[in-house]
From TrEMBL:
GO terms for biological process: D-alanine biosynthetic process. The gene is alr. This is Alanine racemase. Keywords: Isomerase, Pyridoxal phosphate. Belongs to the alanine racemase family. Residues 245-375 form the Alanine racemase C-terminal domain. The lineage of its organism: Bacteria, Pseudomonadati, Pseudomonadota, Betaproteobacteria, Burkholderiales. Pathway: Amino-acid biosynthesis; D-alanine biosynthesis; D-alanine from L-alanine: step 1/1. Gene3D superfamilies: Alanine racemase (3.20.20.10), Lyase, Ornithine Decarboxylase, Chain A, domain 1 (2.40.37.10).
């Protein structure tokens, strides 16, 4: 018997959520961002649902790009960070990958490379995040250089926002970077790509230069495609019309009656103040559940809200059954996503917030030992 825990991937939600990105983005094309193994959901599991809506697949490493090609996708595939060493360019040629150019090294590698056919590159502007990309002056020089290379067919202008999900230093989150992008690119031809999930949800309709919006030519929705909300708790999934693409469910393995003054779990981190019924659930931090989730982190027991108690162990965690007299051995516990019993929802972002992190981290951390089932 496998342990009573499983993750479900809801494929209809994947198509629905990317469809939301498409609606918000106006006429822009949509990259389905499938880095980190499709944010923990599994590239192969998500592919058919995502291809119904996506215009291309955006990856971080070559292995992911190879997997998308192996699934039979012949459309655009983008390496968001470009190549990591010169010989990666051979695979870019062979697999027809589009790739970011964010630094001089990548530019020189391409200039020295014998391509099979001219390549499409995404030239990245560092508009203020100071992670990847050329500063504005160097950006313009890099554009000139790329435009003169026989290896290059087309240059798309790209940047990435640091604060699209919130205010920045008390002001509009993207205004400064937007102005930097506009100033650096105003007279350059070519397509543009700026928006991640947060910018697609919050800013897609804002103007960018002549007749264009922040959605520009390509949006790059990642987490929203999986039902995660970049600006939680200001907004939640229901507000943005997003559906969870992953549910993590386990069962109650044992029930303990606990008297006042008795404790639960490692470190006696929870001490009962009244008689309680405690369910121990087949899910722990070795399954990807966050160990930092404190007492009170929400769960659904047979679809009804309850809370965790005490420390999360490697293979188990404890939940409060005191107010749920019908719950007991074998009851379903939804750690995040949709209950299989009632269909009730528990936002992954709410669980993440309780544990001091973000929904992105929880979905990406789903452990390999958890069996995964795909359903519509
Ligand atoms: C990860 C990533 C995205 C998607 O980000 P989300 O916040 O998940 O939407 C978009 N663009 C780049 C360059 C990225 O690295």
């Amino acid at each position: 018997m496998p342990r009573p825990i499983e993750a479900l991937i809801h494929t209809a939600a994947l198509s629905h959520n990317l469809g939301r990105a498409r609606e918000l983005a106006g006429g822009a094309r949509v990259w389905a961002v499938v880095k980190a193994n499709a944010y923990g959901h599994g590239i192969e599991r998500c592919f058919e649902a995502q291809r119904l809506v996506a215009d291309g697949f955006a990856c971080i490493d070559l292995n992911e790009a190879e997997r998308v090609r192996a699934l039979g996708w012949r459309g655009p595939v983008l390496l968001l960070e470009g190549v990591f060493e010169p010989r990666d360019l051979e695979l870019c040629s062979r697999l027809h990958l589009w790739h970011a150019i964010h630094c001089e090294e990548q530019l020189e590698w391409l200039a020295a490379h014998k391509v099979l056919w001219p390549q499409r590159v995404f030239l990245k502007l560092n508009s203020g995040m100071n992670r990847l990309g050329f500063k504005p002056l160097a950006f313009r020089a890099a554009w000139q250089r790329l435009a003169s290379l026989p290896q290059v067919e087309d240059v798309v202008l790209m940047t990435h926002f640091s604060d699209a999900d919130a205010l920045r230093l008390g002001q509009d989150g993207i205004a400064a970077q937007l102005a930097a992008f506009e100033a650096a690119t105003a007279d350059l031809p070519g397509e543009r790509s700026l928006a991640n999930s947060a910018a697609t949800l919050r800013h897609a309709q804002r103007p960018l230069g002549e007749g264009m919006s922040v959605a520009a030519d390509w949006v790059r929705p990642g987490v929203m495609g999986y039902g995660g909300v970049p600006d939680y708790p200001e907004h939640d999934a229901a507000y943005w019309g997003l559906q969870p693409a992953m549910s993590l469910r386990a069962k109650v393995l044992s029930v303990q009656e606990v008297q006042p003054g008795e404790s639960v779990g490692y470190g006696s981190a929870f001490v009962a103040e009244r008689p309680m019924r405690v369910g121990n659930v087949a899910c722990g931090y070795a399954d990807g559940y966050p160990r930092h989730a404190p007492t009170g982190t929400p769960v659904l027991v047979d679809g009804q809200r309850s809370r965790t108690l005490g420390r999360v162990s490697m293979d188990m965690l404890a939940v409060d059954l005191t107010e749920l007299p019908h719950a007991g051995f074998g009851s379903e516990v939804t750690l995040w996503g949709r209950s299989g019993v009632t269909g009730a929802l528990l936002d992954i972002d709410e669980v993440a917030r309780s544990a001091g992190t973000i929904g992105y981290e929880l979905m990406c951390a789903l452990a390999p030992r958890v069996p995964v089932r795909v359903e519509p």
